[in-house]
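User: I'll paste a sequence; please echo it back and then give the predicted structure.

Assistant: Echoing your sequence first, then the prediction.
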Amino acid sequence: MTLTDNGREVEVIRLGWAGPRQHDGIRADMLAVIPETTGCRAVDSTVEGDSGVMRARLTCPDRRSGAPPPIIRLWSG
């Protein structure tokens, strides 16, 4: 997966093929990787997309101090 984080929003993209029975698990993994890699929480009401591409708004209490967000991270789980 790739994860793009601009400090306000996040986009997670699955890389590679997935079988029909894998999509629910992939979607759960995509949601789990957001706080693991960004330190922020996805706002549930803003999560959209599927097991291919998922986007959400972030809530990041630690970033109020002006710490720069990560830009792109690769994750393999």
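The first strand starts at residue 2 and ends at 5. The first helix runs from residue 23 to 38.
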